[in-house]
Design goal:
Blueprint (H helix, E strand, L loop, with lengths): L2 H9 L10 E4 L2 E6 L7 E3 L11 E10 L4 H17 L3 E18 L2 E13 L1 H13 L3 E9 L2
Antiparallel strand pairs: 1-2, 2-3, 4-6, 4-7, 5-6
Length: 149
């Protein structure tokens, strides 16, 4: 990398770069690191905190609106047990929409009850949770989104 490239990259973000060759993507600094015999790879932040940082997520899942309230409560309890099993902290939990007509039927079901949960977890634990939710046939769909603060 030429010296002029490093100067140009340092101008794309107002903060001073601490050490190493760094790049900028959409205004966020990325430290480029490489070891002997490996390809260049980007890392965000400090490698010591990788896997230890609790990220914020939102989870929305849909169940059939025509099932009984007891069944819906049982599904919510199963999801809560799955969250506890995967060591995910629930910040907020609520029924978002009750008996909402879906844009298209899922498994020949036209109305669903939507549940919204705010979570704090490691990314590896969220992957475990998603595999558990896929197995539950009473959950029609779910979506997990990482919240950028």
């Amino acid at each position: 990398m030429e010296r002029s490239d490093i100067t140009h990259l340092s101008e794309c973000h107002p903060r001073k770069f601490l050490s190493g060759v760094q790049s900028c993507v959409s205004g966020f600094p990325i430290k480029i690191t490489a070891t002997a015999g490996s390809r260049l790879g980007g890392t965000f932040g400090n490698d010591k905190n990788r896997g230890k940082v609790m990220n914020k997520y939102e989870l929305v899942y849909i169940v059939d609106a025509h099932t009984s309230q007891n069944t819906k409560d049982e599904i919510a309890r199963q999801v809560a047990d799955s969250l506890a099993k995967t060591e995910i902290k629930v910040v907020n939990s609520q029924m978002w929409l009750d008996r909402h007509k879906m844009s298209f039927p899922i498994q020949k079901i036209g109305e669903g009850t939507y549940y919204l949960l705010s979570l704090e977890a490691k990314s590896s634990n969220v992957a475990k949770l998603q595999s558990i939710l896929r197995i539950n046939e009473q959950i029609l769909r779910f979506l997990t989104v990482k919240i950028n603060c």
